Each structure stands twice: as C-alpha cells, then as structure tokens.
Amino acid sequence: MKSISLLLFSVLLGTAVIAQQDKSKRPSPPATEKVTLKTGATVTIDYSQPSVKGRTIGTDLEPMAGKVWRTGANEATVFEVDKDVEVEGEKLPAGKYAFFTIMDDKGDWTLIFNKTWSQWGAFGYKEADDALRVKVDGEKGKFHEKLTFEVDPGGKITFYWGDLKVNFKVK
User: Fold this and answer.
1) What average pLDDT does the segment 111-129 reach?
2) Residue 1's pLDDT is what?
C-alpha cells in the first residue's frame, strides 16, 4: 500500500512540475506587449494575466492600498526598453526592470522600475534596488476581466485591471 501511495504521489508531483513548465496552462497565463515607439525605442512588457473572477480588487485581490504589487501574477512583470527613455519626464536607462506598483487609498499610483527584474512576485522586492519611481493618477475605466497592458507607438502605456485604468507616458 505504501508503494502505491508513493507512486501516486510521484505521478502527481511530476504532473505539477510539467504544468508549471508550460506557463500557458497556468490560471494566470503569460502575455507580452511589444511595441517600437516613434522615438525608435522598443518597449517590451512580459507579464502574467490574473483574472478578477468575481473578486473585489483591493479587498480579496491585489493590489491592496499602500502595498507593493507585482502588477500581474506569478513572476514579477518585466518592463524592458532597448534605449534610454523618459517615463513621465524622468530618465530610465535602457535595460530590464521588474515593474511594480503601489496604489494608494485615493486611487493614485506609484510606478516602480526595479533593477532586480528576475524574481517571483514581489516577495524579493527591495526598495534599495529601485531605478525609478514616478507617481501617476489612476481612473475608472471599462471593466477588463484579465490584467491587460497596451502600448501605443506614441509612448502611451495603459494597464487595465477590473475597472481600474492607469496611463503613463514613455518617450
């Protein structure tokens, strides 16, 4: 009986490992938004798309007011630029960054570009590794079930999450 239980456990564990390797099978699948801006810089955003699934953002679903959010699911969202850019008028050198946000209780946002881009969620986040922080206003938008990023060639980046909408400018 012990050997059957051990075999069953091994099969289940192996199945879980294989499922994790195929990221498209995750409940929050991967997505990429990649656009070359009119300025010539290419912006790439790699993220995982959580779904609202009837939950309430800020209560039982991230982001929670005042707390760092990976702005996605699974691994930290990666924001990459191949040339030096300005985000909301502040300089950001070419490179890869973990993209985090903090929403305050009024619906305004702090966008964080962190030098430690390869990490799981926000668990390893260290403010000392921030390359840039900028503040932007949030607003209510059309409901999106899944977190969605959009980048237009003019440099306007928008992310939608539930009825939240956040815009920022990259040039």
Assistant:
1) 95
2) 52
Q: How many domains does the chain have?
A: 1
Whether 20 is covered by a domain: the verdict is no
Separation of alpha carbons 148 and 10, rounded Å: 36
Please tell me the distance from the alpha carbon of residue 62 to that of residue 45, in angstroms, as a whole number: 19
Q: Determine the Cα–Cα distance for residues 159 and 124; give it in Å rounded to an integer.
A: 23
Task: Write down the pTM of the prediction.
Answer: 0.85
| Within-domain flag for 88 | yes
pLDDT in tens, 8-63: 444 444 444 544 578 878 778 899 999 999 999 999 999 999 999 999 999 989 99
Percent helix, strand, coil in the chain, to 5, is: 15, 50, 35
Q: Is residue 9 part of a domain?
A: no
Angle at 43 between CA 117 and CA 65, to 5 degrees: 55
Question: Which of 26, 28, 24, 109 is closest to 66 using CA atoms?
Answer: 109
Query: In whole angstroms, what is the distance from residue 49 CA to residue 134 CA?
Result: 23
What residue type is 26 in one-letter code?
R
* Main-chain dihedrals φ then ψ at residue 22, nearest 5 degrees: -90, 90
